[in-house]
Design brief:
This protein is α/β, with parallel strands linked by helices. It has 4 helices and 9 strands; from the N terminus they run βαββββαβαβββα. The chain has a single domain, classed as Cytidine Deaminase, domain 2 (3-Layer(aba) Sandwich), CATH 3.40.140.10.
Length: 173
């Protein structure tokens, strides 16, 4: 079974608004990982500011150690897994660069060790396209085969409210 990811459209819009401010923007999602269907369910977003970066150019970004530590603490507090996301800009290629892949070589084993073997995933976006990798069973990346962006509607609750008001009027009258 292949790895998958899902995210609510509003959360995705929040993340991409940050990611597309300029190339090499970066942030982290928290996710709930469901091993039964190998899906990362993205639940929260935190975009990183300039002060949380050790280096940024048009073609490379490096997250400061303090920001990495904070991301790991965030995931630990929330009993979640981390999913990194960064942008290659609105017109770039949705492919992890050589420097991205080299960075994963040190970072992924470290973050998975700190999060007690939890899976990790990374997303790169460019325009309307993306690529995504997951490290689930070991420190070897695998392709995330499907990335589902959903729209969640919250029911109004009007019906149960009306029933409660009717029952209250009956009880009073």
């Amino acid at each position: 079974m292949s790895a998958r990811a899902s995210v609510d459209a509003d959360l995705w819009a929040e993340a991409t608004a940050h990611l597309f401010e300029r190339p090499e923007q970066v942030g982290f999602f928290l996710a709930r990982y469901d091993a039964s269907d190998r899906t990362f369910h993205l639940t929260a977003w935190r975009g990183l500011g300039d002060e949380e970066l050790a280096h940024r150019s048009r073609y490379h970004v490096e997250i400061a150690d303090d920001a990495k530590t904070e991301a790991i603490k965030w995931a630990t507090r929330e009993h979640a897994v981390l999913v990194e996301a960064h942008s290659h800009g609105r017109r770039g290629d949705p492919e992890f660069s050589g420097s991205d892949l080299a960075g994963f070589g040190d970072w992924v084993p470290h973050v998975r060790w700190r999060l007690r073997g939890a899976p990790y995933a990374a997303i790169v976006v460019a325009g309307d396209a993306l690529d995504a990798l997951a490290w689930i069973d070991d420190d070897t990346p695998e392709q995330i085969e499907a990335f589902e962006i959903t729209h969640t509607l919250v029911p109004s609750g009007d019906t149960l409210g009306s029933i409660a008001r009717r029952e209250a009027r009956r009880a009073d009258g």
